[in-house]
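Quick bug: tRNA-guanine(15) transglycosylase output formatted oddly.
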Amino acid sequence: MRDHFEIRDADGAGRIGRLDVPRAGRTVETPALLPVINPNMLTIEPSRLESEFGVDILITNSYIIRQTESLRQQALNDGLHELLNFDGAVMTDSGSFQLSEYGDIDVTTEEILKFQHEIGSDIGTPVDIPTPPDVSREQAQSDLEITEQALADAESLDLGEMLINAPVQGSTYPDLREEAGRHAAATDLDVFPIGAVVPMMNNYRYDDLVHTVAAAKRGLSVDCPVHLFGAGHPMMLALAVALGCDLFDSAAYALYARAGRYLTVSGTQQLDDLDYFPCSCPICVTHTPEEIRQQNDDERERLLAEHNLHVTFEELRRIKQAIRSGNLLELVDRRARGHPSMYDGYRALLDHADQLEREDPVSKGTFFYTSPESARRPEVLRHHERLDRLSTPDRLLLTEAGAPGSDEYDAAWRVVPPFGPFPRELSESYPFTAAVPDRPDRGGQIAAAEGVRRLVETNPNTEFTLAVEAWHADAIEEIPDRVTVESMKDVREGFGTE
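Here's what came back:
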């Protein structure tokens, strides 16, 4: 077990955790955003990030510092924290990004990690190979071998209290990502970044991103703090947290501001297209879009960057509260409605419901059925998989409504889309306290029918009757032939209730 990371709350695979960073003397609450700081081009002073935005941890590039003589000497003489004027924890990247962009860098893992330690980094990074999406399998495997050697080189060094990243690569090959995650988790390293995902995000391939992260998470153990390298747009944070990512780094707040782009939880807008700000952050309540447009370039960039950070940290706080309240997946569902590619990502997330279910708490806040995708959530899967634990009588009525008892049946269980059948005495237990629509959709009814089918298959000696009202034909088709299907109207009349 990694004693520097503790999980405090969970929902889905998302969690609120505590990451101890001993060299900084700090404990960082996760999910956490690490603003990217380029010491050659400061949009916002790092000291303000801590005092005004509550930033506990940031990330900067040790390769740039090492290659820039003035920065190198200042960092060696005064230390990284003094250079950046920041008292919190500092993670340093190694130059792997430059390697992916320019094809080569003149530094080894041992050299860059020793340099990071010398200048006072709190979390260092070896020189891994960020393999882009869609390369040949041969290249992905070859690059992964180099990355795994870099992890071995990092593991062999004595760097005191400095935590070390163990990047997880493997391109878009799920089996390689899983293998890389398992290999990284078996090392003595400390934080586990999932790398080379920025091209997927830049091209709105959120479904591929989800499958990539899910594969890496299958290899990593639950106690591994996971960093999603290059992810920091507020639109996708809820989705990434629900997958089990704990740390994010964002240069987007500054890069987008430089290009006149305004971040929101549903996407990115151009400042030139805005007449009103849809936000209540300190920047947006004290300025109009026109007032910001009239500023000089530096001031306009600073104001936009501050808004971009405010909206991102607001979303992180919202995500944490959703985890605490047990409704993270409802938040992901809402965010998925903001962009078609995010919707693809949400649907891909639910393709891994079995994986989420293994970490999802068995009891939490009220389940809200907010879309057909709610029928695929881990809570529904868990109920279906546990139906074989329930004992059924010889003659069982499954009914949507609160029908009275009858001598014709030994018991009457409820059937509630999307869960399907359950004994009435469980009605006040999670998740059957769910808030569901009065008019169930096709997806919910099909999921309920799947629950009926599973119950019937595990109880071959029970005689089942299903009483439903206006179910979709596709749901009725899921019901096994040996189940007698009746309308609720006929059942009520048989009970003398009409």
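Actually, after a second look the formatting is fine. The chain has a mean pLDDT of 93. Closing.
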